[in-house]
């Protein structure tokens, strides 16, 4: 069975950084990319970025381009999302999601992590 | 970015009755390869989103055949033939035709 298990909730002060992990199991890690999606309290879903677990290539949403870092540890089948220069607007649930490619184009997200709540407060 | 617009935003439904949600994209989601890059997700209360329909009309593994997806290049519909209590939650459409992937605002389905 495919599982994506994320690290626990974090409380951070404005200006700090947070690093969330997404540990995968049940499939060949390097076959599928990992996406990261943010959900502010009571709000909708926002795509942040994608990383190739095969070669580390990333695609980032423009609004996060300058402060988002996506990495992987292939030996641990784990993906990481680091967001810098946090503000209160970054308080949200962060999800990792496995991405499937269809026709050489990044497509749907078939398995999701349980979400990690990051609270930014002074 | 491609803008995704869902309607309605709230949908009270009666168990056993059909329901449908519309999703419109600001640009075509039809690729030259024939795929329509439009997916539907359901976020049940307190849970992570889960895939319901992918590439416009394909049911995800384990999804009831009460769910169906259809659409053209810019207009898509998710249909539930007979709503059950377990179907409540917020439904999102998402396009992956262009980067960045973008989601609709969400449609909250609740039982009357």
Which labels suit this protein?
heterodimer, A: 122 residues, mainly beta, four-stranded antiparallel β-sheet, globular, B: 112 residues, 11 strands
- Distance between the ends of chain B: 36 Å
* Helical fraction of chain A: under 10%
Quaternary structure annotation? heterodimer
How many individual β-strands of chain B? Answer: 11
What is the helix/strand order of chain B?
Answer: EEEEEEEEEEE
Structural class of chain B: mainly beta
Radius of gyration of chain A: 14 Å
Give the rounded overall mean pLDDT of chain A. Answer: 96
Dominant shape of chain A: globular
Which range best describes the helical content of chain B: under 10%, 10-25%, 25-40%, 40-55%, 55-70% or over 70%? under 10%
The best one-word shape of chain B is: globular
Biggest sheet features of chain A: 7 strands, mixed
Number of helices of chain B: 0
Give the DSSP E fraction of chain B (strand runs of 2 or more residues): over 45%
Taking pLDDT < 50 over at least 5 consecutive residues as the criterion, the unreliable ranges of chain A are none
Please provide the count of β strands of chain A: 11
| Average pLDDT metric of chain B | 97
Number of helices of chain A: 0
Biggest pleated sheet of chain B:
7 strands, mixed
The SSE order of chain A reads EEEEEEEEEEE
Low-confidence stretches of chain B: none
């Amino acid at each position: 069975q495919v599982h994506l298990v994320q690290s626990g909730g974090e409380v951070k002060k404005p200006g700090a950084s947070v690093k969330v992990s997404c540990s995968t199991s049940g499939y060949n890690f390097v076959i599928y990319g990992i996406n990261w999606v943010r959900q502010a309290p009571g709000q909708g879903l926002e795509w942040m970025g994608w990383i190739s677990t095969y070669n580390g290539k990333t695609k980032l949403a423009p609004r996060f381009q300058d402060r988002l870092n996506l990495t992987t540890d292939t030996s641990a089948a784990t993906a990481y999302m680091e967001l810098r220069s946090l503000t209160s607007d970054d308080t949200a649930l962060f999800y990792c999601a496995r991405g499937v490619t269809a026709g050489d184009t990044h497509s749907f997200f078939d398995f999701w992590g349980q979400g990690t709540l990051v609270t930014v407060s002074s | 970015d491609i803008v995704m617009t869902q309607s309605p935003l709230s949908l009270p439904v009666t168990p056993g009755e059909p329901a449908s949600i519309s999703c419109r994209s600001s640009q075509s989601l039809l690729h030259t390869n024939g795929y329509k890059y439009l997916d539907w997700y359901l976020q049940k209360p307190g849970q992570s989103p889960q895939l319901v329909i992918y590439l416009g009309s394909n049911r995800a593994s384990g999804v009831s055949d009460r769910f169906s997806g259809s659409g053209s290049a810019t207009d898509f519909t998710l249909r539930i033939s007979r709503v059950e209590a377990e179907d409540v939650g917020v439904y999102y459409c998402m396009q992956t035709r262009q980067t960045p992937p973008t989601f609709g605002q969400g449609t909250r389905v609740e039982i009357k």
